[in-house]
Amino acid sequence: TPAGSASAPRIIFTTGGYTGPLVPQLKRAILPIATYMMVSEPAPDLLATAIHTREAVLDDRRASDYYRLVEGGQRLLWGGRITTRAASSEGIARELRREMIGAYPQLRGLKTELSWSGQMGYARHLMPQIGQLAPGAWHATAFGGHGLNTTAIAGKIVAEAVLGQSDRIAMF
């Protein structure tokens, strides 16, 4: 908050594409990358003709498209495309729909209900940023493109360091 303050003996910065001026030492290491998402209208019968799993799918042949059925198979959540700048909602929907139809032509009639973009933090050297900024100040950020499994182990490593249980954080 711009007007508030907080006091704590320890702090862990777990930011991403929105780090901005919050932590100047990290700002220079993190490149905010726009990623895009859309969600379809409810169309369970049409979706069932194309997608036969409730698991999330990643197709790295197609600009890292990722998708899954949501709301019990009622809707399709589709994400993909990355750029260094945000795009309009209309442009997002158009690009994502083109990728979706390329993978599943039978979904051509599926309408997009909502589309949006957000920023992920990518490290300039392509590896997550994990470490200690100063006594009592830790960070785990810039996981763009590395998946949730990497964030989980980073959290464990930072927690071990904060609690004095291991020095595995020194590897980073």
Task: Itemize the secondary structure elements and their pairings.
Elements: E1 11-13, H1 24-27, E2 30-40, H2 44-48, E3 57-59, E4 65-70, E5 75-83, H3 89-103, E6 112-123, E7 129-134, E8 137-141, H4 148-162
Parallel strand pairs: 1-8
Antiparallel strand pairs: 2-5, 2-6, 3-4, 4-5, 7-8
What would you say about this model in short?
The chain has 172 residues and is α+β, with helices and mostly antiparallel strands.
Explain this structure.
There is one protein chain. This protein is of the alpha+beta class and 172 residues long. Helix content is 23%, strand content 32%. It has 4 helices and 8 strands; from the N terminus they run E-H-E-H-E-E-E-H-E-E-E-H. The strands form 2 sheets. The protein has a 5-stranded antiparallel β-sheet, with helices on one face. The longest helix is centred in the middle third of the chain and has 15 residues. The model has no long low-confidence stretch (mean pLDDT 87).
